[in-house]
Amino acid sequence: MLNKFAELFPNLASGVSGIFLPGSVNEILSIDLGRRSLKGVVLKKRGKRAHLLSVKEKELKSPAHEINEIVRELGSLLRELEPFPKHVVIVTDHVKFLASELNLPRGKKLPAERLIAAVAWEMEPYLDFPTSEALLAYQVQEDRTETDTSTVLITAMSRSTFSRLREIFKDYRLILGRAYSPECAFAFDPEIQKDAENKIIIESRHDTVVGTFLRDKDTTLFQNFPFDPEGPARKDDLKQMIYELRDPSVRMEDVEIVLAGDATSDELLEELRKELNNVRFWRPEDDFKGIKIISDVLKVGPQYATAMGAALQELGLGGKGRLGVTDRIPFGKKVKQKFYLLPVAGSALVLLCFLGHYAYMKKSINDHSSKIQKLQTERKELLELKKKREALESKEKGILRKKKYLENLPGRQKNFALAVLGISDVIPYDVVLATLSWDKHGFSIEGHALEVHSIAIFVKKLSGLESCKSVDLKSWSKKDATIGGILLPYSFVIKVRVS
To answer: Is there a shared CATH topology between the 1-193+289-329 domain and the 195-285 domain?
Structure first.
């Protein structure tokens, strides 16, 4: 299958940043194109030192979702950053990111063409543009010693989107080198690359949160989920992510938690410190991997973490390589390609003189066979879609019947039904219900939980249901229960009164 994929996309290698790299630079301008603000960082490489020359942030008047809306304020940001180098890299969520497990034969080096095909195959379902139009970058994270799988980080961007951004920066006499996803720019930030053990890094943007857990100097877990910084549950959401990222064998007291990103604030830090002791903001001045960061800027906030990560990668100071995408190919590589293509083209021309008719007929047969196969596949997909549509229509009718039934119920019975239905929407992932008993005022819930704080979260979310008049935690105790092979050490009883 991988060989077939490589044959279908023979030019895909020209868009893989891991193979064709633009020349290195000693000074770089890194810009994070956020939806609510633009962040600029100017970084210079001095031997094994990274010299931070300037940082600036430009707030956008309204949340931006299109490139044109973002670049309107670009000129203003650049004027505040002057002087700056002509080479620029960007961080944008127009670059897609995927962390995946790749099947690689142990003890063998996979040919570049097959590795590219495997990477493209993994990324294809997550793209909203054809794979043949993708600019790709990838990095295999672990050495294969005992298994035939390796973790690989992949980023992809539409070639047309990259070209559009390159022309925009060209108007400002800037050369766009690479575009990084927020996840990969953040993943090679100095805080993460610094020697660390049992550290959780949280980068909260205005619409997503990225988290990673470090142990024994390796990234063991990587998560990304939507995030509402203005929502009432943002502290609980971050706490839940922290507990999910933590290795169960490591005590929370031994874990260091670092906060970064646009949506990080002093209020959020103080809220988390009430329950988690070792919490602090990201800072760029720490040493990491033998690299010293010196700064001309008095204060650099945690919102610059991704821009710093991209700049350090571009200067060759962060990670094993550069995980940004690009469409640039070094001049020397182009000359070498053309030199070797000349004798091949001459031989091909001679062969075509003798075998032209045969090749033409074979191509026509293959084209027709391919079209027939494509039509059969499309027919099969359409039949599947038809079945799904019929199933959805049937499900919709059932929902409408249930809705009509609920609307016709008396007020108290309706609230009973809504309260019970609402439990599945608010129950934490590590809480299991045992019994549900009724009385004339409401019902009681008995269950078990993995963590004590999950019981409190469950009670709080139940209280937020409109149909629940009051929710009281009657009792809780440390009483082990094994459900589905999982030990749940805490038991509880909750009394719910409906409106």
So the answer is: yes
